[in-house]
Amino acid sequence: MSEGTIVAGALAPHPPHLVYAENPPQNEPVAECGWETLRWGYERMRRDLDALAYDVLVVFSPHWQTYIGTHFLGVPHFQNKSVDPIFPNLFRYDYTLDVDVPLAEAICEEARDAGLVTKMMRNPDFRVDYGTIVSCHMVRPRWDKPIVSISSCRSHAYYSTEVMQEQAIALGQATARAIERSGKRAVLLASCSLSHRHFVTESELPEDMSKEHITNHNQYLWDMRIIQMIKEGRTKELIDVQPEFISQAITETDSGALTWMLAALGMPQLAGEVYAYGTVIGTGNAVVGWYPKGVPA
Length: 297
Ligand SMILES: [Fe+2]
Description:
By secondary structure, this protein is α/β, with parallel strands linked by helices. It has ten helices and ten strands.
């Protein structure tokens, strides 16, 4: 068996609005339009990812929150309806997905050997979280690749950003080792927004783009600073500024998703391909791909 590899890592934010605006057959509510900059960015990233040969999507989601250790989906197939708890008016999505259980088990074991608390989730009636579903849908709406879904153990909230970073880095390295041993080609998805202050009321028509903008200028400046680091491949600095970024921009990277993904890639000095930046109810979202072997032609 040849050595497995991570063919790409991606920042793949999961506002349900993006699925809503796309009107796929799986989603019940119907939109007129909306959030095109982000959706068209996702379309371009899809094309680049599709040009790569890969076997599995490995996604880390802030919305599967497990307070004792990191959990992994451990059932081969899930089918159910996912309803966003905050936006049930936008996201009522019928999903059917396959899980690469052997790879999930391998990452779970590697992470346990590295000293992390881990657990396989074996409940067949478990409802898969919408962060996992939205990111995977936006990257691969055909759902023809199996996934590995990894929870966020919220160590930022329970301990500190530093503890979160340490654990996310160990989990990323364990993920890379398990993928290498598996012989598979994986795409990693960090399912999170950047700045995450959002409006507390929704406009009458959610897709009314005349109402969409960043919550405040401070959030925007932080997002631009982070994107500049991404474009210049300053990965280590990107990780080092997380404590400040998280506390000042209330970011969704507090979940560990971004740190995990960059650690799995080996913190490369590698520029990310920024496909889009846009806001959703005031939060900052970037769609970015990192390609260790270069951006697909
Ligand atoms: Fe979220």
